[in-house]
Amino acid sequence: MKPHLKPLVKQLLSSRQADLLTAAPADTLHTPSRPYPNGWFSLAFTDELRPGSVTTRPLAGAEVVLYRTAGGTLRAVRPRCPHLGAHLGVGGWVEGEDIVCPFHQFAFDPAGTCVRTGYGQPPPKASLSQYPVCEANGSVYVWWHSLGLPPQWEVPVFPMDDRQPFSHDTFDLAGHPQDVIENAFDWGHLPTLHGLKGLDIGGTPVAGQPVSTVTATARGTMMRGFRQSYTLTVIGLATIAARTVLPRGAGSLYVMLHATATGPGRMQLRFGTKLELSGLPGMPDRMGRAAVRPVARLLSAVLQRVASVDTGADLLMWHHQEHVEHPKLAKGDGPIGRYRQWAQQFYTEPTGGLAPPRPSRTEVSRSEE
What we know:
Helix content is 19%, strand content 30%. The protein has 369 residues and is an alpha+beta fold. The strands form 4 sheets. It has a 7-stranded antiparallel sheet. A hairpin with a 7-residue loop joins strand 14 and strand 15. The C terminus is likely disordered.
């Protein structure tokens, strides 16, 4: 990273907001024109939703209430109680396997059905409106589609240890998820913004496939002084997941970057790091297995701070970036044009004159889990 960018990045990371200097956020300079993409979007890391917890997260101009029952069942619902419209995320709570409305204490089971009232009367025939939700790779995903279609594909699952959480941060920014995910195919910025050297990279999106893979080898990554090989898995217009296999079978390093549209021209960036170790050098196997997870968790927190500096440079760019619909590409940029054609499959309405396949009206329905 260029030295003059470091103070700006540190300010961003310390404040959790990108209100920097006199430059305006991109969404205040022009009217956002691209629609919300369809797909799975991460609204939390798994450790943010412990049994009994209730939280509210923004998604595509609306709100989603996430909760986990005492038995561990995860649910995502629209926030309004069907009784008289109270917000379940403002004072609502989990009681056993049910979520309870704070206004009249109407309770709803994991299927969304009202099972009791707060004053002992028979419950009405009412139910919560649910979003499809899943957990994968230490992250909580909610499915969103502009036409209300049910999930069209699944989030790939990586071979990681779910008992160890990610160290993570969340940032509110101007921008659009498509520009964030484009980073995986913008190979020109890796040496110029991040200082990677000896870069050997390859992989292009496959038309019609919601998941793409990029493989790379470079020097100048988080483990300075070593040439590292890593794999990027691009999941829709929502996630870039990086995995680096450590030398000598020592373990794996995972870095997750989630982009979620929250409103017109706005998004939340969730960034997490996790180091998984196979053992500790110089320690007997039995002792090493007992100590490996606490040590890995401590090192994950350190690596998250290191990685945040590099990622902060990207956040700085995205917050002030204006999307160029017809860019003047140069040799060495990477397959940006092919990526943008691939990205069209995640929109109900075409953008930039490229039309994705569209379902017939008979296929359109409102989905509930």
